[in-house]
């Protein structure tokens, strides 16, 4: 496979061109409008709205640039994300939208509607057959799979389980329904926090596999019967059902690549990553630690694998910001992400995605 083109521009602005105008010029130069016919096509822009309390997520202004460009081409565009597996501000569609609005994402600031792709409780998904090494049927949020065109707009940052979170993480993990996220994160079934459980039976009533029983006003889950659908997590009124998050980081990365394949195959797609406010942890945290490097710029490509590789290389060429967690760590791995999270290997996801035919780690960087 020949090297993929990745387009890049820095965060310098001029009196005649601000950063939003520069982003528009970047995606035009990368060929998004020339190579994709948006007219009357439902277009999903996958983005992370940010967990309440976290301030490292992308500002909604960036998304409006992409929305406006697509609308000018006659596209039917919406911003989207799926509900989280963990308990937080985005665990169901109502809380998720509240969180998005709190962080500035709404139809007035973005120019389009926001859809939570896997529905009210994270159970509205489509099974996408891929016959991967670890995933046979990916569970993807229905609204994402109903779209004709897929665009990812990612905040590139560190991640405690995958090394970094970029395009593949935004696509694979982000587009998984609650059941999909459960499959990626876990090697075992959910379990009940008995100190929280009130024995209401909501989980049992919503279990289609008779895996849940109630005894002495406490629920329990039989691992041999559990199908991993995650409905019990979504319906519990007191957040008493939890998951182990016990999958190995390498397999987690490979599952993310396989889920990315399910999202991208058989339809047009394009990808944008902003290397800005590069926090050491995921935007799913309700806080963000200080950025680890100076802001780098904006990247765009039709190839999410090459895009992630280009962003990782760009980050690793930067010095650590004094006083951040990277500055405090021993630099023994010659890799910023591994220095912060030494138990991770981010290249696993990229190598597996390349093996799956999603893209290539070889890239030609074109600066505008």
Give structural notes:
By secondary structure, this protein is α/β, with parallel strands linked by helices. It has two domains: 304 residues, Rossmann fold; 52 residues, Alpha-Beta Plaits. It is built from 15 helices and 16 strands. The chain has an eight-stranded mixed sheet, with helices on both faces. It has a two-stranded antiparallel ribbon with strand order 5-6. α1 crosses α3, α8 packs antiparallel against α11 and α11 runs parallel beside α15. The chain starts with a strand and ends with a strand. 52% of the residues are buried. This is Ferredoxin. Ferredoxins are iron-sulfur proteins that transfer electrons in a wide variety of metabolic reactions. It comes from Clostridium symbiosum (strain WAL-14163). It holds the Pfam family DUF362. Keywords: 4Fe-4S, Iron, Iron-sulfur, Metal-binding.
């Amino acid at each position: 496979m020949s090297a993929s083109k990745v387009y890049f521009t820095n965060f310098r602005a001029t009196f005649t061109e601000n950063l939003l105008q520069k982003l528009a010029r970047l995606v035009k130069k990368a060929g998004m409008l020339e190579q994709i016919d948006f007219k009357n096509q439902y277009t999903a822009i996958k983005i992370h709205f940010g967990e309440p309390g976290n301030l490292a997520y992308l500002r909604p202004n960036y998304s409006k640039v992409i929305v406006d460009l697509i609308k000018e081409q006659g596209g039917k565009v919406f911003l989207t994300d799926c509900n989280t597996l963990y308990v937080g501000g985005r665990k169901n569609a109502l809380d998720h939208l509240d969180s998005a609005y709190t962080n500035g994402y709404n139809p007035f600031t973005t120019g389009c509607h926001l859809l939570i792709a896997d529905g009210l409780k994270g159970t509205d998904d489509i099974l996408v057959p891929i016959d991967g090494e670890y995933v046979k049927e990916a569970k993807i949020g229905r609204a994402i799979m109903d779209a004709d065109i897929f665009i990812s707009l990612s905040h590139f940052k560190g991640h405690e389980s995958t090394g970094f979170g970029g395009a593949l993480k935004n696509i694979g993990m982000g587009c998984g329904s609650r059941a999909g996220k459960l499959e990626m994160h876990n090697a075992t079934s959910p379990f009940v926090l008995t100190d929280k459980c009130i024995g209401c039976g909501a989980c049992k009533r919503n279990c289609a596999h008779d895996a849940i029983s109630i005894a002495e006003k406490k629920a329990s889950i039989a691992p041999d019967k559990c199908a991993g659908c995650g409905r019990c997590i979504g319906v519990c009124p007191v957040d008493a059902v939890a998951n182990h998050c016990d999958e190995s980081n390498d397999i987690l990365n490979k599952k993310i690549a396989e889920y990315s394949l399910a999202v991208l195959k058989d339809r047009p797609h394009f990808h944008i990553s902003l290397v800005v406010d590069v926090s050491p942890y995921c935007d799913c945290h309700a806080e963000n630690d200080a950025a680890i490097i100076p802001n780098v710029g904006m990247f765009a490509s039709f190839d999410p694998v090459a895009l992630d590789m280009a962003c990782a290389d760009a980050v690793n060429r930067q010095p650590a910001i004094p006083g951040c967690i990277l500055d405090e760590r021993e630099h023994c791995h010659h890799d910023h992400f591994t220095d912060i999270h030494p138990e991770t290997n981010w290249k696993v996801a990229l190598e597996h995605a390349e093996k799956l035919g999603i893209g290539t780690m070889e890239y030609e960087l074109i600066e505008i």
